[in-house]
Amino acid sequence: MASDPDRNRQRVHQLLERPGNEKCADCAAADPEWASYTLGVFVCQSCSGLHRNIAHISKVKSLLLDPWSASELEVRNDVCFDYDQWRNCVICTDPSKWIRAKYERKEFMCVERQEPYSAGYREGFLWKRGRDNGQYLSRKFILSEREGVLKYFNKHDAKEPKAIMKISSVNATFQPAKIGTAHGLQITYLKDNSTRNIFVYHEDGKEIVDWFNAIRAARFHYLQVAFPGSPNSELLPKVTRAYIKEGYMEKTGPKHTEVFKKRWFTMDERRLMYFKDPLDAYARGEVFIGCKQNNYTVLSGFPSTVQGSHWQFGITIVTPDRKFLFACETEEDQKDWIAAFEAVINRPMLPREYAGTFNYNQVFTFLSL
């Protein structure tokens, strides 16, 4: 006669064969090998790690390695919340936020509990960093999908916005370390063909996440209208984007005889921007990074005639027009930046990247160090 552990293990495999249990309850990955016995769902290994972050709600076990008791075997993904329902109402990039919304806040058990991420309109107050003095002040923000804009007001009762950001050029990314608060968000948009940075935060982490998701939902709607017929798989990566790399390097001028100066660099798709301070509103200059088919290359080190950098780990970017020289503080930083540049240069350019380029090299050359 089979022992209790053996019978329980057989029962686990029988549960896996039920319709709906053949995929992860959270991300739809096939053949889950873990389960939350407190929530009653099967999950993949990746999502099981996220469930450990909400241990007060979810207790997970391996289907293959851990022993199971009879009381833990009520596992049914088919009664779980609808993943497709969530995907249609929230365009979310962070699985941990999705899992917390799903199990902690229980947003997807019924429609009235769902946050209005894709309602097309959001209004509220965020702490915004001043462009010149660096002071954070409460500002009213309005997101309007119908108008295709995100705007903010300097005064709570102001009728005219201080700035209007077109959704077509808006990007949002979490920047807690850069901003210095756990709930910091960096919003960028194009203003007079230059990238404008806005840094905001909110004391409530859920509030800033809701703003982030609302911006993503508005961006997704814009892309659906701008590119009709395009599959969601092509549109979703364009909704918002994280920067390829950020950090300090030293740079010199176009003659390569100027003093090297320490600057903060941000690699955003094919645009390499540099700032005097990481929280500057505008970049001091930008350089376009093309592809190897257009004679762009990245080299380790400097030309033999170059001197004057404080940091010794050099990088040379060769473009059709000139060479750009940078210096890194450590060899590890140098390798990381070279890898980032190579990833961009080795990727063929898209038609929209050709159409959207202007003479970044000239801008980079003539703006101040």
Terminal residue distance: 81 Å
Count of discrete alpha- or pi-helical segments spanning 4 or more residues: 10
From the alpha carbons, calculate the radius of gyration and give it in angstroms.
Answer: 25 Å
**CATH topology (level 3) name of the largest domain:** PH-domain like
Mean pLDDT across every amino acid position: 84
Order of helices and strands: HEEHEHHEEEEEHEEHHEEEEEEEHHH
Indicate the CATH class of the largest domain: Mainly Beta
Number-wise, the strands total 17
Structural class: alpha+beta
Query: What general form does the structure show?
Result: globular
Low-confidence stretches: 78-93, 357-369
Q: Going by CATH, what is the homologous superfamily of the largest domain?
A: Pleckstrin-homology domain (PH domain)/Phosphotyrosine-binding domain (PTB)
Main sheet attributes: strand count, strand direction, barrel closure: 7 strands, antiparallel
Number of separate structural domains: 3
Please provide a written account of the structure.
- The strands form three sheets. The protein has a seven-stranded antiparallel beta sheet. Strands 14-13-12-11-17-16-15 form a seven-stranded antiparallel beta sheet. A three-stranded antiparallel beta sheet has the order 2-1-3.
- With 369 residues, the protein is of the alpha+beta class.
- The chain contains ten helices and 17 strands.
- The chain has three domains: 101 residues, Arf GTPase activating protein (Annexin V, domain 1), CATH 1.10.220; 127 residues, Pleckstrin-homology domain (PH domain)/Phosphotyrosine-binding domain (PTB) (PH-domain like, Roll), CATH 2.30.29; 120 residues, Roll (PH-domain like).
- It is found in: Cytoplasm.
